[in-house]
């Protein structure tokens, strides 16, 4: 078998048939094509190699390619389905599908669980939840005292850890999220409902503006 060149890999990673992606997700073929244009913009913002690197992802989401943020790192890691350090086009579309308004709530709940399960143990532990709460507060430029953060985490565990074993399992998380829908508010991006109409503002909102690209 011959070796696949870097250029061939990048072309294959960036292409992936729109009709197949449309069948596998909530997006239409036209919406997948609109996402392809967005993907091209983001993937050429820094490295210009047709693949989205972590710095480009952070620039698009948070307008900052250097700021360390656990929340951004976790989102990137979950989008990077192949665990190869970049987000390919198919991964981009399939992962964004989680945030579509028409995606079943069960899928959003499962994604949020993986987001908080920092160590991939299949449970959310006290320290993991605290780390994520701090990261989200930091990204929102909110500052709370250590006592206030501990109170948030303790209260969450009091409600979610039904068997009181010091960790939250997927079923407990599902029950907790179902009773607290506000927890998943950021798991839905309304403009994905019609990305072809919202595309110009979506690019601007993503941070991948023409000025920055």
UniProtKB/TrEMBL annotation:
Assembly and oligomerization: Homodimer. Interacts with CIPK.
Membership in a protein family: Belongs to the calcineurin regulatory subunit family.
Gene3D superfamilies: EF-hand
Pfam families, per the entry: EF-hand_5, EF-hand_7
Record-level Gene Ontology MF annotations: calcium ion binding; kinase binding
Entry protein name: Calcineurin B-like protein
SUPFAM superfamilies: EF-hand
Keywords carried by this UniProt record: Calcium, Membrane, Metal-binding, Repeat
